[in-house]
Amino acid sequence: MGQLFQNRAGRPINPNSFDVLATWVQALHGQGKITNALFSLLSLYKSDAALIVRFVEGNWQPRKVAVVDQKSDKCIARGHSSFAEIMLGENLGVSKTGTLWLWSDLIEDFDAVESLHIQQRFLSSGLSDVGLIGLENSAGHYDYLELHFKSNLGKKSNLGKDDKNHLSLLAATLSKTWEQRLPGTVQKLLAQSRVQKTLDQPGLPSKLILDINNPYELSRCEYRICTMVKEGMLVKDIASGLSIREVTVRSHLCSIYAKTDTSGQIELLHRLTIGTASVPPEIIGQPNRKIS
After folding, report:
1. What is this structure's pTM?
2. What is the mean pLDDT of the chain?
């Protein structure tokens, strides 16, 4: 029986991982809440937040299926952006399910410019690492599980070697059981998220994203990207217009989603069309400087 709690390297496996897995499987079959299972998962690996996100083919904006964090106490959390598209890039949707990727490992594959910009995006979010697991690669949609790790007083909170091995072993089972979930699970979770969002924001937002007072503290480039999104421009068109890479535009969009508490480009566009704000010419002309 002792070998049951050891991995192939002979290191002991935290027995709590079996409880987490049981909670996960029960929730996928309607005998518990997915948010509770995610909370147990983030507690086991000492992460700050856990997300399940879905990408639909033809629309690469993440849809948050479920989100929890340490402050939400097992309730639906808000304000956490997905990093799946930034981490996987063109491999999003064709990546192998049941596999663990870590931001700290993938950063070495980015070129110098991308690496610096995206690393700054991570640092501005207070993150030290992100663990990403492909849950399902099905016809028309792609599901991912993310664990976000925050820095603690300047000390990295990345997964330790043993925890990384444990999570890598658990990833395949998380994916397999996700694929065998009760039909309608994702649709139910998305509906619950919409209801919760309506309860959290019963009226129209009191602050306009493109207000000249910049209530969401967007950078000049983020502000300009918002004006271009409002005009209906796609990521590739925005990148061409600003002479930057598409991955850089997506990184800025992730930052915008986090600051404005929006879940993706569709919701951002909806928020941008609420009211009208004048955009000062100096903001349009200097996208890389901060708005004071």
Report:
1. 0.68
2. 79
